[in-house]
Amino acid sequence: MDETDKLIALYSHTGERLLELIRTLESGSYTRRRKERILKQIDEILAELTDGAAQSMSELLAESYKAGSQEAASSLIAQGMPENQVNTALEPIIHQQAVQAIMDDTFFRILEATDNMSQDAKLRVEEIVRTATERMLTEGFSRREATKEAVAKMTEQGITGIVAKNGARIPADKYMNGVVQYNLRKAHVTGAENTIVQNGLDLVYVNYVGITCEYCAKYQGRVYSISGADPRFPKLEIRPPYHAHCVHSISAWIEEYQTPDEVERMLAASNRPFTDNRTESNIRRYNEIQRDKARKNETRKQWLRYKAVLPNDTPNLRQFASQKARKTAKYTELQELYRKANATIKAEG
To answer: Which InterPro entries match (predicted)?
Structure first.
């Protein structure tokens, strides 16, 4: 499990911890003091998450920015620029400020997710107590029975990380996975761009990906002028990444190392209308890939949960997916280990 997966697993594991904490109300023997203790535990769990996520993300962003810078420098050399003329020094002020700006935005997202997780978990506790009490008084349920049903209903879904504009509640691990991937790619692109500018260049190329989404299709495969000083090419106003999980980046495009035919081709490609020009077959293939990704993501999310709780017993993702698909004895055994581990966590909570 790489460091990015560990960060996402941290959210998956924290979500499970909060749900298990809420499930401790199942006994029905709750008091005001016990409820306050649970609310305090929610704060403690999320404070630990925030600190861990911020530290991990800061390190990952610095690494991604450096990788983007190194990739840009390598591209300059590959195109023909003499190696001894390529400025690869990460000048402290420019680069540190760039990384910090991305970290500031990321930290805001981390706090936003933490706040939503806190509100969601605490509201579930309050709702369980309210619903159980109401059913005891109006429907004659025992305290234990009413509470158990309320807990089951309130723990069906993962803890909310963000509420979308349409009102959909997105689980914290899914939301933060998008936040992490987007900002790591942004750091990579920013590192590349600043290194390109640092070497006195202005033209950059956004890579072409054959099978891509409608939005990315409008911008990929073009040369842009960073400053807008070269009127032959569009100005780089909208930079990749264009969305979470975007695979687009930029690299230097040095005209003097291009053939006349390539310059003409790129002028035409760069100035085409900003519209989706994908073929019907590419669109169909993209939709097929997205459906397949959705299925694989469910397995990956499950793997992250298992890896967070059973780091030494859970195999790598490929083996896990294979065992799950074939419903092997090892997978069944791992499921039982996971169930017991969560039961232990619940009892200790």
So the answer is: Phage_A118_VSP1
